Automatic annotation (TrEMBL):
PANTHER family: N-ACETYL-GAMMA-GLUTAMYL-PHOSPHATE REDUCTASE, CHLOROPLASTIC-RELATED (PTHR32338:SF10), N-ACETYL-GAMMA-GLUTAMYL-PHOSPHATE REDUCTASE, CHLOROPLASTIC-RELATED-RELATED (PTHR32338). The active site is at C137. This is N-acetyl-gamma-glutamyl-phosphate reductase. It comes from Niabella ginsengisoli. Keywords: Amino-acid biosynthesis, Arginine biosynthesis, NADP, Oxidoreductase. Residues 3-129 form the Semialdehyde dehydrogenase NAD-binding domain.
Amino acid sequence: MINVGIIGGAGYTGGELIRLLINHPQVNISYIHSRSNAGKFVYEVHKDLLGDTDLQFSADVLQDIDCLFLCLGHGESTKFLQENKLDSAIKIIDLANDFRLQKDKVQDVLGRSFVYGLPELNKEEIINAKNIANPGCFATTIQLGLLPLAKAGLLKDIYTTGITGSTGAGQSLSATSHFSWRANNIQAYKTLTHQHLGEIGESLHQLQGETDFDLSFVPWRGDFTRGIFVSSTITTDLALEELYPLFDEFYKDHPFTQVSKMPVF
């Protein structure tokens, strides 16, 4: 049994993580930390968990665990690890973006190195990792469509659009996350400048080497709650029937990804 702690368990990411872990046969949740909800039952915040757990949010950061999940806002994980000196034996899985990029994977001030946690790319490294940087949502979706093509050296000019639900913006209210704004509406944002472009580029170069390619990405905010749909276009002389085997071979040992050959138009 693996004993885990969760930091920042009151947000959307924390709630989904709790739902997964309380039903995992090999995991025991030792504590769920929340500064703003300490003492409350978890189901008072995540009402969908009523009847599934009687855990309460804790104000303490305990060290008697095997693994710690960080579900904090972007940039907060580094600050948390600076302020809380954890036992080096505790494995850390960070769900924010603090340690995804190569330049961020080793922090001298923390003394920890992080593996980029996309299993379809770094499966063996993840198995042996002490610390894992969870991939971004758009980054995961885009990479899954491009990794087999990168391995085959086929990427040059990539044009990608993607639309995401409102939960991706987090639980804090903002002008573009209010339902009254998003209802019957869509909006492009961070056109060609999205923060996930860095980690996508590193992953594709990991498979294709230093061969140059250009990735143009336009993300959209959608009129729905959760989920992402991405469409990527590349230029190639290969027919679709010649590309399918690249995907079948690449994902044959990755059960989380299914290759569909059904027409979408």
